[in-house]
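Help!! Second protein's tokens look totally different from the first
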Amino acid sequence: MFELERIRVAETMRRLYDRRLTTVSGGNVSMRNAEGYVFITASQSDKSCIDMRKVIILSPEGDNLTPKLKPSMETQMHLSIYKSRPDVFAIVHSHPVYASTFAVAEMAVDSAITGEARYMLGNVGMVEYHLMGSPELADACAKVMSSANAAIMAKHGAITLGKTLFEAFDRMEVLENTAHINYNLRTIGCSSRLSDEQINDIDNFGKN
């Protein structure tokens, strides 16, 4: 069932691993189709070579239609975000090194350093720490992501959203690149960023 959706989720997960945006056992990817079915990577799957057979199908009511597969511990986090964001159809959660460095330090990633970062990410949210896989983490993520498309998860990793898997993946890659630039700027003692006028222009770009 739903072969195309499951193939695309698996492809995105492999791409995250290939781009060094997560570890072989870390992170998860999901998408939601127009009928409300959700497709998410299974727990304990090798992210370097995952294929559609390791992608779970959840009914619009949240029932596991692939009972031989164990749901990711973060499944409720994905479902809670989808519930709070009807405009979102894809979620990427991973542990890229620089974004995770800021997550461990509980320091904000400033997106207002380049036009691309600001346009793609908007304000990067910060999700407070809760135990991985817990209902508290799911609730905290849904709350922050109700007004953000990218966020750092304290002592954990990063999460990005999109209307498509490509958009969610793209945002994760831009988030990691932006965190890397933030790190470099701090290393050389530079605080350069876009002006308030430039930020306003980017935030309103394409709205008129």
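Here's the second one for comparison:
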Amino acid sequence: MPQYKSEFSFSNKAMRMLWGITWLLLFRPSPRPLFIWRNFILKIFGAKIDAGARVYPSARIWAPWNLTIKTNSVLGDRVDCYNVGSITIGENSIVSQDSVLCSATHDYNLPEFPLIIRPIELKENVWVASHAFISPGVTLQAGTVIGAKSLVIKNTEEWTVYGGNPAKPIKPRKRF
């Protein structure tokens, strides 16, 4: 059953505005190696970030309070993390440059065009290659690799390489 969201509260809008200002003035201009600084800022806004997580300064995060990043994981350059719903990135996972994680869509079958929120989860040892798009409600199972410029609209199988539009299984990935 989809979770509809008709509008956002005043406090949600105010927090997003405050986050946008903070992102612009303190997060985005920070030097690339200052991962600890950016993690600190994200934690102030409610993100759950483990030690060793790396978020690059050009990553765009819509709502830090809906973001969880586990140990040794990466949000690369210019990743668009549209986390209206929760987005969880498991241990040792990488989301490469210019990829999109999108946890919301619209119900186009209703005249109100309501927002539908569905969480995204990346399990451990996942790699989302450059320019990939991960759709609302998708879970990328452990060891999944998503090829560059792929569109993922369904959950994946463990330790499998996917590619294409829409993404389909290509081959198994060697377990380590």
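Reply: Different proteins will give different token patterns, so don't panic. The chain has a mean pLDDT of 96.
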